[in-house]
């Protein structure tokens, strides 16, 4: 479950990133994306500890792909060249890539295989 803790921390990072990058009041879509994604990521990470919803962390992978796409294609009108991505959008891309990597780690990844567990307790 260590990967869910990392997802939770990345969600917290997204929640504070508007203040770190100094989003302007006029960049309401960036504020909305940061806080909505943070809320969903934190919720998915915490809900995956509940046994009936243990696979909900896979929704984080979908959200991560959306964040990567938004970070790549949501350019402000004054920045036409793709080489000039603003730092807030770069943050979406990087955080999305990290989330995608950790979302694919199963909840029980730090536990030994069942066969090993049974052999050691016989």
TrEMBL record:
The chain crosses the membrane at residues 6-24, 31-50, 56-73, 85-105. Residues 2-104 form the SPW repeat-containing integral membrane domain. Pfam families: SPW. Signal peptide: none annotated. The keyword Membrane applies. InterPro entries: SPW. Keywords: Membrane, Transmembrane, Transmembrane helix. This is SPW repeat-containing integral membrane domain-containing protein. It comes from Gimesia algae. The lineage of its organism: Bacteria, Pseudomonadati, Planctomycetota, Planctomycetia, Planctomycetales.
């Amino acid at each position: 479950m260590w990967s869910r803790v990392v997802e939770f921390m990345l969600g917290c990072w997204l929640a504070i990133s508007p203040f770190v990058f100094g989003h302007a009041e006029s960049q309401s879509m960036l504020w909305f994306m940061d806080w909505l994604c943070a809320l969903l990521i934190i919720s998915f990470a915490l809900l995956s500890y509940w046994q009936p919803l243990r696979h909900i962390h896979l929704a984080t992978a979908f959200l991560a792909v959306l964040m990567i796409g938004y970070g790549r294609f949501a350019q402000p009108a004054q920045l036409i060249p793709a080489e000039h991505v603003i730092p807030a959008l770069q943050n979406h891309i990087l955080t999305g890539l990290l989330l995608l990597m950790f979302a694919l780690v199963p909840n029980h990844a730090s536990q030994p295989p069942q066969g090993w567990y049974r052999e050691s307790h016989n």
